[in-house]
C-alpha cells in the first residue's frame, strides 16, 4: 500500500517494472527509468532535504534542474533528483542537514 501523497502516477507501472530503492530508512519500490523526483513524490517522500542554514524542509519545485530544492545524496554525491532516473538499488539519503555538514 502506498503512503498518502498528493501525487499520482498517470499510468501506474506494472509490478515487473518496479525496483527496490531505499530513501533513508524507508524501503521503496519505484518504477525503473522514471524521473526520480517524481517517483519519490508519488511514494510520499517529503522533504527531500533540509536547508543547511535554517534546517527548513525542501522538496522539488521546478522539476527542470533550476531550483536545486530536490537535492538528495546518492552514493555520497549530492545530486538533483529531478535530473535522475530511477535505477535498481539506489541508496538515497537527505544531504547533510544543519550543523551536520561533515556527516
Ligand atoms: S526540482 Fe528544481 S532542481 Fe530539481
UniProtKB/TrEMBL annotation:
**Which UniProt key words apply to this protein?**
Oxidoreductase
Q: Name one Pfam family in it.
A: Fer2_4
InterPro entries named among the record's database cross-references: 2Fe-2S-bd_N, 2Fe-2S_ferredoxin-like_sf
GO MF annotations for this entry? iron-sulfur cluster binding; oxidoreductase activity
Q: Where is the signal peptide?
A: none
| Name of the protein described by the UniProt record | 2Fe-2S iron-sulfur cluster protein
Amino acid at each position: 500500500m502506498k503512503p498518502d501523497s498528493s501525487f499520482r502516477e498517470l499510468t501506474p507501472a506494472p509490478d515487473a517494472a518496479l525496483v527496490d530503492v531505499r530513501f533513508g530508512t524507508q524501503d521503496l519500490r519505484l518504477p525503473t527509468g522514471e524521473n526520480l523526483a517524481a517517483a519519490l513524490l508519488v511514494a510520499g517522500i517529503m522533504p527531500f532535504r533540509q536547508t543547511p542554514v535554517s534546517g527548513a524542509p525542501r522538496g522539488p519545485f521546478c522539476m527542470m534542474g533550476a531550483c536545486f530544492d530536490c537535492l538528495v545524496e546518492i552514493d555520497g554525491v549530492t545530486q538533483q533528483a529531478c535530473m535522475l532516473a530511477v535505477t535498481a538499488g539506489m541508496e538515497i539519503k537527505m544531504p547533510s542537514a544543519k550543523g551536520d555538514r561533515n556527516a
